[in-house]
Amino acid sequence: MNKLKMVSDLSFPTKLHQDSAELIRDYFLAMSNVDTVLVVNSCARGKAVPESDLDFAILVKPDTTPAEIKNIEQAWRIYSEKQPTLPRNCRTANGLQVSPAPTGKRINC
Q1: CA–CA gap between residue 82 and residue 24 (Å, rounded)
Q2: Is 72 a residue whose pLDDT tops 80?
Q3: N or C: which end of the chain has fewer CB within 10 A?
């Protein structure tokens, strides 16, 4: 299975949205306890405009502890602050949703 596959029919309103989504995907899927990276809301529905936020959800493996989730969020804050091309609204964990992946069901990006 290729964990780094991105759904090809996603259409982003700008190159910055696309590049940011790829950076986010690559960052999180390199972590062993991350199961899936989802683009959600307007970008996922194909309704985004250039001013739209890039919303995403991170699904972790079911055995990931709350402390590990906190570490993932903290590591993202540190990493994202060092990415000058990443939009400001993607740089904090405030919009970051980290949740266990559904047991018995795997969602692949």
Answers
A1: 13
A2: yes
A3: N
pLDDT tens digits, one per residue of 37-64: 888 888 888 898 988 888 888 888 888 8
Asked whether the beta carbons of 17 and 48 are under 8 A apart, the reply is yes
**What are the structure tokens assigned to 64, written together?**
């990931």
| Whether the predicted model's global pTM rises above the 0.70 cut | yes
Domain residue ranges of the chain, discontinuous segments joined by +: 15-100
Q: Closest Cα partner for 77 from 67, 88, 65, 85?
A: 88
The CATH number fitting domain 15-100, selected from 3.40.50, 2.40.50, 3.30.460, 3.90.930: 3.30.460
Report d(CA 97, CA 99) in Å as an integer: 6
Two structure tokens written together for 32:
């062993």
Tokens of 100: 């266990």
Residue 99 bridge partners (DSSP): 59
Q: Which two tokens stand for residue 41?
A: 């809301």
Measured between alpha carbons, how far is 45 from 63 in angstroms, rounded to an integer? 30
